[in-house]
């Protein structure tokens, strides 16, 4: 299943997250620091969503209260909730 998450407080605008059985299958980020976000997306592919959330949640970007990795953790939480609803 794929969700579209509108980011808040960061340079990227949207994250498209595909999850299957709690495992991250793919992440596409629109906007933001393209190279860094491609790297993060590839690193979390194949990872359990809970593990990725634990590693990324709470990361800040400069003086901002959030970051793209933190926003990805929020998107993954929503994806897990949606997946659980459909099960």
Characterise this structure:
- Helix content is 44%, strand content 26%.
- By secondary structure, the protein is α+β, with helices and mostly antiparallel strands.
- Strand 2 and strand 3 form a beta hairpin.
- Helix 2 runs antiparallel to helix 3 (68-86).
Which structural category do the helix and sheet elements fall into? alpha+beta
Count of alpha and pi helical runs? 3
H/E element sequence = EEEHHH
**How much is the average pLDDT?**
97
What does the largest sheet look like? 3 strands, antiparallel
Strand order of the largest sheet: 1-2-3
Which descriptor suits the 3D outline? globular
* Helical content (DSSP H or I, runs of 4+): 40-55%
- Extract low-pLDDT stretches: none
Number of strands: 3
Radius of gyration: 12 Å
Share of residues in strands = 25-35%
How far apart are the termini? 11 Å
Architecture blueprint of SSEs:
Blueprint: E1 2-6, E2 12-20, E3 23-31, H1 34-44, H2 49-56, H3 68-86
Antiparallel strand pairs: 1-2, 2-3
Helix pairs in contact: 2-3
Summarize the structure.
This protein is an alpha+beta fold and 87 residues long. It is 44% helix and 26% strand.
């Amino acid at each position: 299943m794929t969700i579209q998450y509108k980011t808040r407080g960061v340079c990227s605008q949207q994250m498209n997250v595909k999850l299957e059985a709690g495992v991250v299958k793919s992440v596409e980020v629109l906007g933001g620091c393209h190279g860094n976000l491609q790297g993060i997306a590839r690193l979390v592919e194949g990872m359990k969503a809970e593990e990725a959330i634990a590693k990324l949640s709470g990361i800040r970007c400069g003086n901002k209260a959030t970051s793209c990795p933190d926003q990805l953790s929020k998107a993954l939480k929503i994806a897990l909730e949606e997946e659980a609803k459909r099960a």
